[in-house]
C-alpha cells in the first residue's frame, strides 16, 4: 500500500478521520501510509476544514489526466534535475514542501521554496516555476511576493533572458531568523507596554511582563546563535 496512489476509499477514510478530530499521524496509521502523504493530500484539497473526499478524488483524476497530456519534460523538469532521476527530485521536493507547510508556510509558498531548494542553481524564473509546479503565473507571483516579504528569497535580473530570476541566498535562514527575532522584539515591546498600562503587579500585568521578558531573551539568544553559525558555515571547511 505505501507509495501507491490514494484510492477513493482512502480519501473517504481521511475525511472521516478529520471529522472525528484525528491527527494526520493517526489517520496515516489507519491507512498504513506515511504521515506526509495524508498531510499533502489534505493541504492540497482545502485543508482540514474544507477537505471533501469526492472533491479530492475528482482533483486527483484531473491531475492524472494532465500528466498524460503534458510532455514529460514539462512536468518533471528533466533539464533541471542535475543528472538525477527526475522522479527522485520531485519526491524530495514534495517531502520538503510537506515539512515547510507543517512549519507554518502556506502551501503554494512552500512549493516554490522547495522547488528552488531542489535545483542545483538555487534559482528559477517565473516561467520555469509555472512549468515545474503546473500552476498559474498569478499563483507564482503571489507566492514569491510572500517569500520576499519574509526575506526567504530575492530576485535578480537575468540579462540573457530579459527575465527576473528568484534566488535563494546562502544565508537565507540567517535572514529569516533575524526577521523572526525582529518581529518577536516588537511583540515583546508591546507586551511590556501593556503590562505597565494594566499594572505591573496585577495578574494580567505579570503575565504580559513574563511574555515580554521571554520573547526578549529568546530573541537575543536566537540572533547570537544565528550570527555564530552563519560565521561557521561561511568559513571554507578544510579536510585532513
> How many alpha or pi helices?
11
Quaternary structure annotation: single chain
Name the strands of the widest sheet in spatial order: 1-3-2
Beta content comes to 5-15%
| Mean of residue pLDDT values | 83
**Gap from first CA to last CA:** 46 Å
**Rounded radius of gyration (Å):** 22 Å
What proportion of the residues is helical, as a percent range?
Answer: 55-70%
Determine the structural class based on helices, strands and strand pairing. Answer: mainly alpha
How is this structure best described in words?
The chain has 240 residues and is mainly alpha-helical. The chain is built from eleven helices and three strands. A three-stranded antiparallel β-sheet has the order 1-3-2. α2 packs across α3 (35-43) and α6 (86-102) packs across α7 (107-117). The protein is globular.
Features:
single chain; 240 residues; mainly alpha; 11 helices
What does this entry show, briefly?
By secondary structure, this protein is mostly helical. The chain has helices at 8-19, 24-31, 35-43, 53-69, 72-76, 86-102, 107-117, 126-133, 137-149, 172-198, 203-234; strands spanning 123-125, 154-158, 163-167.
